[in-house]
Design goal:
This protein has a domain of about 100 residues: Immunoglobulin-like (Sandwich). Helices cover about 50% and strands about 25% of the residues. It is built from 3 helices and 9 strands, in the order E-E-E-E-E-E-E-E-H-E-H-H.
């Protein structure tokens, strides 16, 4: 006996697409809509239960409503040459009006009451430029989230301080600024005194050299004068003898 046609509307209808890179969890959404006037029980099954996390994987969809099922693919080493053989099946049945135990309904259900739809999994790896763009977008979003969290933490810290504590912190800052200014002034005075000592030391060291140079010059002049006097005397004696 053929099974009845699926009453739930699936979106997507035939394929669950997962977009890489697959170094982290990749999530896709399966929407299940119940257009009937009765509640519908559903279950989501997969051929690779260790590779996927499905939330919720079962439940009841009220009449005229819908539900979003998150299908999370766990990280794995992607091989582009390997085709995915993973499949999903959405199983459903009409809930009885007096239902109190969902598991009991599934156990008591007859095969002809079950409806199912099958979907295959498709893995897509983005191009290099798209991958770079996604990585940059992730970096920007992570940096923004960090800055927002730091801003919020600063605001919460400021709000946790009362006026008295804020006043103490401001006074401590002023005291530290005054101490820094005083240390700078002392450092400047020490530099000035050090420069004065160096100038006096250089003056004292240069004074003996200058007096010694003057004495040397005076001794040189006196020696020249004596030599000239002796020369004139000798010349005068010779001229006097010639005259006689």
């Amino acid at each position: 006996m053929a099974r009845p046609e699926q009453v739930l509307l699936l979106e997507p209808q035939h394929e669950l697409r997962f977009r890489g890179p697959f170094t982290d969890v990749v999530t896709t959404t399966l929407k299940l809509a119940n257009p009937t006037d009765r509640n519908v029980c559903f279950k989501v099954k997969t051929t690779a239960p260790r590779r996927y996390c499905v939330r919720p994987n079962s439940g009841v969809i009220d009449a005229g409503t819908s539900i979003n099922v998150s299908v999370m693919l766990q990280p794995f080493d992607y091989d582009p040459n390997e085709k995915s053989k993973h499949k999903f099946m959405v199983q459903s049945l009409l809930a009885p009006p007096d239902m109190t135990d969902t598991e009991g309904v599934w156990k008591d259900a007859k095969p002809e009451d079950l409806m199912d739809s099958k979907l295959r999994c498709v893995f897509e790896m983005p191009a290099e430029n798209e991958k770079t763009h996604e990585m940059e977008s992730n970096k920007i979003s992570s940096s923004l989230s960090k800055s927002e969290s730091s801003t919020l933490s600063m605001k919460s810290m400021a709000s946790s301080l009362d006026d008295g504590e804020v006043k103490k912190i401001m006074e401590e800052c002023k005291r530290l600024q005054t101490e820094v200014q005083r240390l700078r002034e002392e450092n400047r005075q020490i530099r000035q005194e050090d420069d004065g000592l160096r100038m006096r030391k250089s003056t004292v060291m240069s004074a003996p050299h200058s007096s010694q140079a003057v004495r040397v010059k005076e001794e040189g002049l006196s020696t020249r004068v004596i030599a000239l006097i002796v020369l004139f005397f000798v010349v005068g004696v010779i001229v006097g003898k010639l005259a006689l």
